[in-house]
Design goal:
- The complex is a heterodimer.
- Chain A contains ten helices and twelve strands.
- By secondary structure, chain A is α/β, with parallel strands linked by helices.
- In chain A, the strands form three sheets. A six-stranded parallel beta sheet of chain A has the order 2-1-3-4-5-11, sandwiched between helices. In chain A, strands 7-6-8-9 form a four-stranded parallel beta sheet, sandwiched between helices.
- In chain A, helix 8 links the parallel strand 8 and strand 9.
- The longest helix of chain A is centred in the first third of the chain and has 24 residues.
- Chain B is of the alpha+beta class.
- In chain B, helix 8 packs antiparallel against helix 9 and helix 8 runs antiparallel to helix 11.
- The radius of gyration of chain B is 83 Å and the shape is rod-shaped.
- The chains are: A alpha/beta, B alpha+beta.
Chain lengths: 332, 675
């Protein structure tokens, strides 16, 4: 009872927030609602919110409501166990589909087992293809490698397309697919373009602003020079940029780039610290996720949805490039 | 012979036919199944082989990852110990010494080098390091805090090693790098022995510099892969790695799988020759074929047994039906099964019972018919006999009537003769009259002529005698007529009697005798008429007789007168006048006689006419009796036909009985004759 009261409150609150948002933005870029989702019940489970996750959650609720889908949001899960329990609860409560942002993407199989016969749509953090199944367990995400490639492209252009340069790479958690995908893409971009990039520092800062600062301190201590700083997300980029700004590096000459176009990231770009970030469209992912949910429940197939991969497992939502010229568009 | 051959050709056993139909179908089905199974299992096995290979390579990659991670954690733990203790050099040496020889994968343990070129290693570590800051591992170590593996290189001992290195983050001002080595040989051992799929091989490639880190062929280790390689697998691996496409491929007779090793830039390549997979498939196909052959044999045997069981009742039914077609309806068919064949047997049984009943009643009926037709035959024979005797009687009748006619004709002739005689008599009487007149003349002329007169008187006397004689003959003839008439009357009576008999017989003959009955009654009537006519004739003849009698007496009286006259002549010549007178009187009497003779003439003419009429009647009777004979003959013919028909009927019923008796309807009748 307590949970459902809370849930109701959350829903109410979100509804109010969304309504306000819609009034202010004139419905924004949301174009959902083309397909009616009336009568469909969807449950959303996710880990503790960060900037992006909150954006995503709100966008999901917004799109669901626009399409007439009943969209209930579970409490933020601190652990896989909690998420599993939540999914099991949702199954017994008669939902048609579960939208899941996994606490740990490597536990996808466990989550799918918990969901029983219900189809699942993973958002943002997509499990390996092995654990996905066409029209049953699908992932709506952005192609992480694109983010890395966009970063590399921007930096190389910003540096004037040198044939070689030194760089620092701050990764997210080493096992995180986004961290791997984005990092590999950076390497690959330069390799493909025949650019000899010497990564004078390449280590994880665990998505963290503070750890990024620490890492930058060590880099500084090693005395190695670098021409660019690649970060797997905005938080680390903000940390690195802040550190560099504080320690006399010229951020105009040494581009610091991030991913996600979070509020902080955009602000940093607006402030002239970070130079570039990649917008992982929370609204786009949310829109596709809801569209996919309706199609799966109603028609049993996701065929025809824009961005569907050839193997039918993923729906890719393209990243958007954000720099000083357009950052204002991403700041709310 | 030919028909028999054809027959034996036609009569194949149902079992053989069914087997002939089913076995090829079964063989075809099983062959198709074997082919489909082979094809499906071929595809499936190839899929399986691929997935096994993928599973194997994933597992292997995980193992390598696990091995690397384990060692890396071991090294990281030692590094974290240094970061935590922040020891002086002496303590550091002691600390590092404790790990020397502990990890078999990295017997030298962890060593530390500072940016200033100072190297610290554990005692007993068999490692030579000069110019550490120029070393690859040091440069790599400078780029990270968390220890990670770098690229392989040849150390001062000439071994290919990979170092894990990282900055010691102890907050101090001097940057130091901790590192530890694992040899490629050890990785090769893991790679080569970690293949989970039989007959599959693996090698490990570092994608940074395309160097082979591990390979079965030791000569290839630490060489780089390239597009120009002669080995199609290596060439393929190079192209795939360049394209970062790590999906499984089939090329140059090999199935090749790729797997990135987590936490490194390494790609594990695993491959297996398709021929090895196909060998299994061939083996499986052979097994399937063997199973198919056995299945065909088993199914054939099973179907044979089943068909035998199902068809068995048919054999006895067939036997029974054969017996039945030979006319044996004594068969009993027991219901042996509860299927259509059972029903068939039962129905045949019912049919046989029905036939038996029907045949026996036909038999009875034909027996009866036979008896009846025999009776009819007999009756018709009797009738034939009767009609034949009737015919005979008729012929007799006709003959009699013939005779009658002849007799009557004779009477007529006689009567005519009589009439002519009478006419002659009148002529003679007229002549006598003339003579009388002449006598008167002569008597008148003379006495001389009295002699001549006497002679003439003698002539007259002779003529009178002849007349008397003739008249007597007429009387005789009349008597004959009377007799004949009596005979006619008798014949008429007899005919009447016969016609009565014929009527009776005709009545007995029924419808066929109707015409005959009419004829018979007609004959009766004619006979009666004949009798009546005969009576009339008799009566007339009586009259004739009487007339003759009076003529005779008159003639006798005249004779006496003549005699007296002669005496008178002889005695008295003078008494001529008296004589003359007497002669006159005689003449008158002669005239009277002539008148009487005329009367006789008339009567005899009448008799002749009547006799002719009678003769005509007799002719009529003859015609009728001829007709009657014809009728009787046709009756005979008809009754012959009737007899023939009834005989034929009798034969037919005989034949029917014969046919029916060909069917055997009771067991006691014994052997059934064929055909």
């Amino acid at each position: 009872m307590k949970v459902s009261v809370k849930k109701n409150l959350v829903v109410l609150l979100l509804t109010v927030v969304m309504a306000l948002g819609m009034i202010l933005t004139g419905c924004g870029k949301s174009s959902g609602g083309a397909t009616s989702g009336a009568g469909i019940k969807v449950f959303y489970t996710s880990p503790t919110d960060d900037d992006f996750k909150l954006l995503l959650k709100n966008a999901l609720a917004e799109n669901a409501q626009a399409a007439g889908v009943t969209f209930d949001i579970g409490e933020q899960c601190a652990s896989v166990n909690e998420q599993v329990a939540q999914i099991q609860q949702a199954v017994s409560s008669g939902y048609d589909l579960i939208v899941c942002l996994p606490v740990d993407r490597s536990t996808a199989l466990q989550l799918e087992v918990s969901a029983g016969d219900l189809p699942m749509i993973f958002v943002n953090s997509s499990p390996d293809a092995t654990y996905l199944e066409k029209d049953k367990y699908m992932a709506v995400s952005s192609y992480e490698n694109d983010a890395g490639a966009y970063q590399a492209e921007y930096v190389w252009n910003a540096l004037g397309k040198p044939s070689s340069f030194n760089a620092v790479l701050l990764r997210g958690q080493l096992t995180h697919n986004a961290a791997i995908g984005r990092s590999v893409a950076v390497y690959k971009y330069f390799k493909d373009n025949g650019v000899d990039v010497n990564f004078v520092f390449d280590d994880t800062a665990n998505w963290s602003e503070d750890e990024a600062k620490d890492m930058m301190a060590i880099v500084q201590k090693t005395g190695q020079s670098f021409d660019a700083v690649f970060c797997n997300n905005d938080s680390m980029a903000i940390g690195a940029a802040d550190y560099m700004a504080a320690h006399g590096y010229d951020l105009k000459k040494i581009p610091v780039v991030g991913v996600d176009a979070t509020v902080g990231g955009c602000q940093s770009i607006a402030d002239g610290k970070m130079q570039f970030t990649v917008y992982q469209s929370a609204s786009g992912q949310a829109q596709r996720a809801i569209e996919c949910a309706i199609n799966l429940v109603k028609n049993g197939t996701a065929n025809g949805i824009e961005g569907l991969s050839d193997d039918g497992l993923y729906i890719w939502v393209p990243f958007e490039k954000v720099d000083a010229s357009n950052v204002s568009n991403y700041m709310k | 012979m030919a028909t028999q051959n054809a027959k034996s050709k036609k009569n194949r056993k149902i079992r053989d036919k069914l087997l002939l139909l089913i076995i090829p179908a079964v063989i075809v089905t099983i062959v198709v199944l074997v082919i489909i199974a082979s094809l499906l299992s071929r595809a499936r096995m190839q899929e399986m082989a691929q997935s096994t290979l993928e599973s194997s390579i994933t597992n292997q990659a995980d193992n390598i990852d696990g091995w690397l991670t384990e060692n890396l954690q071991n090294f990281s733990t030692i590094k974290q110990g240094i970061e935590g203790m922040q020891p002086d050099d002496e303590t550091l040496v002691r600390y590092l010494t404790t790990y020397v020889g502990k990890n078999t994968n990295s017997p030298n343990g962890v060593y530390v080098a500072s940016q200033s070129g100072q190297v610290v290693k554990g005692n007993g570590a068999d490692i030579q390091i000069s110019n550490p800051t120029e070393q690859q591992w040091f440069k790599e170590g400078m780029s990270r805090v968390n220890m990670a593996y770098g690229s392989p290189y040849k150390n001062e001992e000439g071994q290919y090693v990979i170092s894990a290195s990282g900055i010691i983050n102890d907050g101090g001002d001097i940057i130091r790098v901790a590192a530890a080595d694992v040899t490629l040989d050890q990785i090769s051992i893991i790679v080569n022995s970690g293949v989970k799929m039989k007959n599959a091989s693996s090698f490990l490639v570092d994608t940074d510099d395309n160097m082979i880190l591990a390979h079965r062929d030791e000569n290839l280790v630490s060489t780089t892969i390239s597009d120009t390689s002669n080995d199609p697998i290596i060439k393929c691996a190079y192209n795939k790695i360049m394209a970062s496409d790590y999906t499984t491929v089939n090329t140059s007779g090999y199935t090749i799988a790729f797997q990135e090793v987590a936490g490194t830039n390494w790609v594990l390549v695993s491959y297996i020759a398709d021929s090895i997979i196909l060998a299994d498939i061939t083996k499986l196909s052979l097994i399937l074929m063997g199973v198919g052959v056995i299945a065909v044999i088993l199914i054939t045997i099973m179907i044979s047994i089943i068909i035998n069981r199902v068809v068995r009742p048919l054999a006895s039914i067939t036997q029974h039906i054969s017996a039945m077609s030979n006319g044996d309806f004594t068969i009993e068919i027991a219901r042996e099964s509860n299927d259509e064949i059972g029903v068939m047997g039962e129905q045949v049984s019912k049919f046989v019972a029905l036939m038996r009943k029907m045949l026996s009643s036909i038999n009875d009926e034909s027996e009866k018919l036979k008896q009846e037709s025999n009776n009819s035959d007999r009756v018709s024979k009797n009738m034939f006999d009767a009609s034949q005797s009737q015919e005979n009687a008729m012929v007799n009748l006709k003959n009699t009537v013939d005779e009658l006619a002849l007799a009557v004709n004779e009477i007529a002739e006689n009567a005519t003769t009589l009439a002519m005689v009478v006419s002659d008599t009148r002529e003679n009487s007229n002549q006598a009259n003339e003579s009388m007149k002449e006598t008167v003349e002569i008597s008148k002329q003379g006495r001389d002529d009295m002699e001549k007169l006497s002679i003439a008187m003698d002539g007259i006397k002779n003529s009178n005698d002849a007349l008397v004689e003739s008249i007597n003959e007429v009387g005789k003839a009349s008597e004959e007529i009377t007799k004949i008439v009596g005979l006619i009357a008798e014949i008429a009576d007899e005919t009447n009697l016969l016609s009565l008999n014929a009527s009776i017989e005709a009545a007995r003959a029924g419808e066929a005798g109707k015409g005959f009955a009419v004829v018979a009654s007609e004959i009766g009537k004619l006979a009666q008429n004949s009798a009546a006519s005969a009576e009339n004739i008799a009566r007339l003849i009586d009259d004739v007789g009487k007339a003759i009698g009076s003529v005779v007496s008159q003639a006798e009286a005249s004779a006496e007168n003549i005699e007296a006259n002669s005496t008178l002549i002889h005695t008295a010549v003078d008494t001529f006048d008296r004589i003359y007178q007497n002669i006159e009187k005689s003449n008158e009497l002669l005239d009277l006689m002539i008148q009487d003779v005329q009367k006789v003439d008339e009567v005899s003419t009448n008799v002749a006419a009547i006799s002719e009429e009678q003769a005509a009647s007799a002719d009529e009777i003859l015609e009728t009796s001829k007709h009657m004979v014809e009728q009787a003959r046709s009756i005979t013919t008809s009754s012959q036909d009737v007899a023939d028909n009834s005989h034929e009927l009798a034969n037919t019923s005989q034949m029917l009985t014969g046919y029916v008796q060909q069917f055997k309807i009771s067991k006691e009748e014994g052997i059934v004759n064929e055909g």
